[in-house]
């Protein structure tokens, strides 16, 4: 069972993070919120229960001197079938639009029995996959990727330790070749990444630099990589894993990340600038990267003067383990992050190996796609021949794994597929299509004369009526 939790909280004084704790044999955080004195704040969260036993619910604050006041406490159970039904209803509402085509002859008489065929040409929702350097030399990998995806991020090839292995000797040969491949095949690229705050993920030579030398090297790195790919990327992960690590903050002070964002934005103002982090929605045990902490860090960056006007975005890596994903916690985290009004992407989705890997991957991808705040999904997965051994989508012979079957199924489902419908007595055809561009063919049932038109399905909640006049 999936349990959603909600409650309104207030503190007797000041402000602090309040957590809901579910305690049985162990303890699990079900959600967090920053509560304050003088106003009520909503906490949303939940757990997935694959056990049966009594559970105690605690409300926790690190400040033992305050009272925690709770109101309207709710715990609501859902079966997986019910949860899936909610996802499907949300997808129908936020990712699709109902259309009515009225097919008539030139004189206005309804064309009963006219056939309408809608084929997807380009979909609006970015659903993609990471790629690595094997794409340059492996024709099977190229065919596998191009036949499925129009969005990507390079898993390692743009990172600093890949482009400047020796100080002062930059080498963009591989990333340039990968960019040429993506441009040739109409694939949009997220830049991953400019800097990585993890001290272990710096180029080896960086670790021995003085603070002044490091500042000069980091600035050169930002200028070099952003200038090189200016105008070619849809996004940048500017400071990677900025909640878990603080390599640059330790060296340059608390504004180090904000300065990096300001510098990148000045060099290339068009791409969305992401704060990219893991464990924000994957599970509740990592308090360092909780949605509450994420928003706080984002607010610190956005309060810096140099980023005014920057198109900021929320990057959630989505590296889930092999256990059952806590979809209630994931949804509550997305809800809280979406309250910022900023676009959310799942940037590196993967699922640990287990007999249920394909099932869990589908649940996670559907949860992301069904959430109105999520505007794109990139998986860090792929074929075995390219070294993807965690979430493998195709084996050594490029035969689909069960996880690969899930991805292909969702691609077809979210592309709508070719839709065929027949006009009723009044010449009406009612259809529901995912947002995107379509090639539409309308056929006269008697003469088989056909008319072709392009159709762009945009966001909107009201039914759109399209009039199509056909000659005999």
From TrEMBL:
Gene Ontology MF term list: endo-1,4-beta-xylanase activity
Domain of life: Eukaryota
Record keywords, A-Z: Carbohydrate metabolism, Hydrolase, Polysaccharide degradation
GO biological process, one term: polysaccharide catabolic process
TM annotation in the entry: none
PROSITE patterns: GH10_2 (PS51760)
Pfam family, one: Glyco_hydro_10
SMART domains: Glyco_10
Keyword Nucleotide-binding found: no
GH10 domain: residues covered: 117-410
Family: Belongs to the glycosyl hydrolase 10 (cellulase F) family.
Protein name per the record: Endo-1,4-beta-xylanase
Phylogenetic classification of the source organism: Eukaryota, Viridiplantae, Streptophyta, Embryophyta, Tracheophyta
